[in-house]
Amino acid sequence: MKKRRFIALILLFSMLGSGIISHADKVDDLKKEKQNQEQNLESKKKSIKDMTTQKDSAFKEIVEKQKIIDQLDKDLTDLEDLITKLSEEIQASKEKITILEDRIYEKQELFKKRVRVMYGNKDLNSIEVLFSASDIRDFISRYFMMQSIADYDKKLITSLKTISLL
């Protein structure tokens, strides 16, 4: 009987031992799977952190690019305003040129008439005109008349020079 008990005990331990071994194998497998899951989780966390860093970097780059775009838009608007202003100034200058050309033409025509008159009266000497006066009043009158004509001629020539320089 002792022998039977002994065999029963051996059989019992062997059954229990094989259950413990298989349970230990399962525990080891579960520990390895848990470790793999933790590694996988850490890998996923690192991947998420890297993506977040990339996202933040891309966002900063977008913000910088937007600042550049805004500055370029402002510069473009400023240039368009400058072009408009310069176009208006050019148009005003063209109008002034047209007015000055008209004045030059008028002054030239007036000068031509004056030269014709002077050429037509070339025989008249200013001294002869003055001494042909009948009295002192006529003499003074003729002197001031000739002085006025000379001043007018000087102003006409000066204005032609001035307009031509513009």
Task: Spell out the key features of this protein.
single chain, 166 residues, mainly alpha
What does this structure look like?
By secondary structure, this protein is mainly alpha-helical. The chain has one domain. Helix content is 93%, strand content 0%. It has 3 helices and no strands. Helix 1 (2-120) runs antiparallel to helix 3. The radius of gyration is 57 Å and the shape is rod-shaped. The model has no long low-confidence stretch (mean pLDDT 82).
The number of distinct structural domains comes to: 1
- What's the N-to-C terminus distance? 143 Å
Order of helices and strands: HHH
Radius of gyration: 57 Å
Mean pLDDT: 82
The residue ranges in which pLDDT falls below 50 over 5 or more consecutive positions are none
Give the oligomeric state. single chain
Please tell me what the overall shape is.
rod-shaped
Helical/strand content category:
mainly alpha
The number of strands is 0
Strand content: under 5%
Q: How does the SSE layout of this entry go?
A:
Layout: H1 2-120, H2 126-131, H3 136-165
Helix pairs in contact: 1-3
Question: Short summary of the structure?
Answer:
It is built from three helices and no strands. It has 166 residues and is mainly alpha-helical.
